[in-house]
Structures are given as structure tokens and as C-alpha cells.
Amino acid sequence: MANPPAAGDKPGGSPKQGEWDEKELQDSLEHLKLLHIKHNSRRDTAALSPRSCSPRIEAFDGMNRSNPMRILRALPRARPSVPSPRAARTTAAPAFHTLRPLQQSSKAKQEKPPAIAEKAKPTDLADFDVLGSTPIPSTNIEATLPRGFLLNSGLSIFDGAGALLVNGEAFAWRPWLAKRKPGMSEEESLTLVNKKGQFELPAEAFAVLSLMWPRPDLLVLGVGPTIRPLSPETRKHISALGMRIEVLDTRNASSEFNMLATERGVEDIAAALIPLGWVEGKGAVE
Fold first, then answer.
1. Phi, psi (5° rounding) for residue 37?
2. What is the pLDDT of residues 161-184, one digit of tens each?
3. Distance from the CA of 238 to the CA of which of 12, 140, 201, 247 falls in 20 to 30 A?
4. Where is the composition biased (Basic and acidic residues) (predicted)?
């Protein structure tokens, strides 16, 4: 016995292969209408832009007009776009490498190099003078002359006399007069060097220093135009007064006294100077 036909089956039997079911045909038509609406909206958008439609869209439009059933076959399959890691590296790497130099260049523009002097100033020796701000003593020697001395205070010692500078005071010093004895000629009294070639003075030539208290710590002795050794008797007498002694020629002794008196003070430094033009047996001459 044959089974009754199903509710959805047509009375003529099952549909042949290649024929469309009524429900499936309606679903396909609805789907085609939606695609057609989307396509028209895209075409209107493309018409507003200055660029012309692509050949693929024009072919798709012609196919749609001729046979709407072929739209599904003409559309390409959608493929998921997976970003290539190589492309990602190539796009990110330039951005990474180009930003860093830009930042460095911007910092270099902001940080200006220090200004360089156009011309180097010449070195001034006065800048290295550690005693430049120290007041100069009034007994400093400004000039040594053949027959005397000029002091910083404006005082001058002439007439062939020497200079004795003690405790800020200046005295005309003639130590050869202490050697004069009765019956001695003037030429003999004007001799300050003994037979051994040593500079020698009697103890009376330093009588002013023996009357002072406290005495200076150092005595700078200028023995004339050339340096000579000091006799043991004269050195012994000065040491007995409690003073150290430094023997130089008159020119260097004057410079030494100026420096030490400015640095340490006139209370600690004294000077006894023979004129620069001193000649044995004649005295100070021009």
C-alpha cells in the first residue's frame, strides 16, 4: 500500500533536479533584493565621488540587469584579511627609526651651544698677583740710583748715603763712618771689603737695631752692585741680635725687601742697603 503524500509535497511528486522550490525561490528573491539595494547605495556613493566606478562594479551592474540570479555566482568569495607579520614590521620599523632622530634634532635645536668669545683676551699678569690688593708699605723702594734711593712715600735718599729701613721708618745709613779712626785716610774708611774679599762692617754700624725691641725677624743686606760673602764677625754680631740675615746685591735686595715687607709686614722685615754705584775707596759715584 502506498504512503500518502506529505503536507509539503506537490501532488505531482518530488521536484526534479534543477527545479526551484517555491519557498526557496522566495528566500532567494528576498536576498537578491537586499543585495540590489546595497549595490544601488554603493553606486550612488561612487557617483558622488570624482573617481569613476571600477570595471568590476560596471560588470556587476550589467549582470544584475540581465539576470539577477547570476549575482551570487559573480560575487567573489570573501576572504579574511590576515595582516602579514612582515608587512607589520616594515611599516612599524620606519616609524620607530624615524621618530628617534626627529626627537634628537628637536632637542638639538632647543639646546643652544654656549657662546664663544670672538677674540681671546690676552693674559694679564696682574690677575696672578696675589698681593695686588695688599697695601704697599711707604718704605718700599721705587728706584735704586747710583747715589741713593727713591721710596714709595716720596722720600729720597741722595748724597751717596745708604738706606736703613726698619719698622716702617727710613734712615740715611753711612756705615763706613763707623770704621773711621784717628789717622785713617778717607780712602781707607771708604773700604767695606776686607782682604779676603768679604763684606765686613763693625758692630757700631748696626747700633740702631740694637736699640729696638722687638727686633725684626729678618735683615736683608744689600752689599752694593755685586754680591759678596759676609764676614764671619759681621754675621756673628747680627745673629747675636736675634735676627736672621740674607745677603744679596743691592738691586735684588731691594726687590726682596719690597716683596717680603708687603707680604709679612714692615715689623718683621728690615733692610740695610749700600748704594748701587758704590766703588771701593771712592764711595758712591755716578
1. -65, -45
2. 999 999 999 999 999 998 888 888
3. 140
4. 18-27
Residue 187 cell numbers, joined:
780712602
CA 16 to mean position of chain CA atoms? 101
- Whether residue 209 is predicted with pLDDT greater than 90 in this model: the reply is yes
**Cβ-count burial 19-29 (b if 16+ within 10 Å, e if not):** eeeeeeeeeee
Is the pLDDT confidence value at 197 over 50? yes
Which sign does the torsion angle of CA 145, 151, 156, 160 carry? negative
Please give the single-letter amino acid code of residue 164.
L
pTM reported for the whole predicted model:
0.55
Grid coordinates representing 173?
A: 745709613
Rounded CA separation 278/263 (Å): 29
Rounded CA gap, 239 and 55, in Å?
A: 124
167, three cell numbers: 719698622
Among the four given CATH numbers 3.40.1230.10, 3.40.50.720, 3.30.70.860, 3.40.50.970, the one describing domain 134-284? 3.40.1230.10
pLDDT at 17: 46
Q: Which three cell numbers stand for residue 186?
A: 778717607
Locate 275 and state its grid cell. Answer: 748704594
C-alpha to C-alpha distance for 34 and 24, rounded to whole angstroms: 16
Compute the mean pLDDT over every residue in the chain, rounded to the nearest whole number.
77
- C-alpha grid cell, residue 33: 533584493
Q: Where are the domains of the chain?
A: 25-72, 134-284
